[in-house]
Amino acid sequence: MSSGVEPAQACIDAFQELKLKKTSKYIIYSLSKDLTEIIVEKKSPSTDYEEFLESLPEDEPRYAVVDVEYELEGGAGKRSKIAFITWIPGLAKIKQRMVYASSKDALKKSLQGIQVEVQATDLDEAKRENIIEKLKRLR
């Protein structure tokens, strides 16, 4: 079920910059105050994954795109892949949870090049190690 909420063009532009120009390592998206549009809340060039996690509010949903770099097994080098995270913490209000859940596909479809999707309700589920584990299973 779609909520009718669409991503602003700035969401797509920021993603293209992350994917092609590598100017950001993560982007956090939120809904506008009137819940009619998905907007860019924060972009960061920081590779500090803990900083990214600290940027996620404990009581409000968000979407995020993270360029995750990780070591290949056997010392075969590094790889970088893009993860889409739906952050819906347990403390979020029910209306927010519903709108974010029903608006996710509109954003995700507009961001071409996502390699893995993660739904997280707490910081443990959003840990870098968990995302890397999913990325390694892709092959």
Walk me through the structure.
By secondary structure, this protein is α/β, with parallel strands linked by helices. It has helices spanning about 10-20, 50-55, 95-110, 130-135, and strands at about 5, 25-30, 35-45, 60-70, 80-85, 115-120. Strands 1-3-2-4-5-6 form a six-stranded mixed sheet. The model has no long low-confidence stretch (mean pLDDT about 95). Its main location: nucleus. One of its GO terms (biological process) is actin filament depolymerization. It is found in: Nucleus matrix.
- Give the helix level as a range of percent: 25-40%
Order of helices and strands: EHEEHEEHEH
Strand content: 25-35%
Pairing-aware structural class of the strands and helices?
A: alpha/beta
**Could you give the distance between the termini?**
31 Å
Major sheet: arrangement of strands: 1-3-2-4-5-6
Which stretches of 5+ consecutive residues score pLDDT under 50?
A: none
Highlighted features:
139 residues, alpha/beta, six-stranded mixed β-sheet, 4 helices, actin binding, ADF/Cofilin, ADF-H, actin-binding
Offer a quick outline of the entry.
The chain has 139 residues and is of the alpha/beta class. It has four helices and six strands. It has helices spanning 9-21, 49-54, 94-110, 128-136; strands spanning 6-7, 26-31, 37-44, 62-71, 78-87, 116-120.
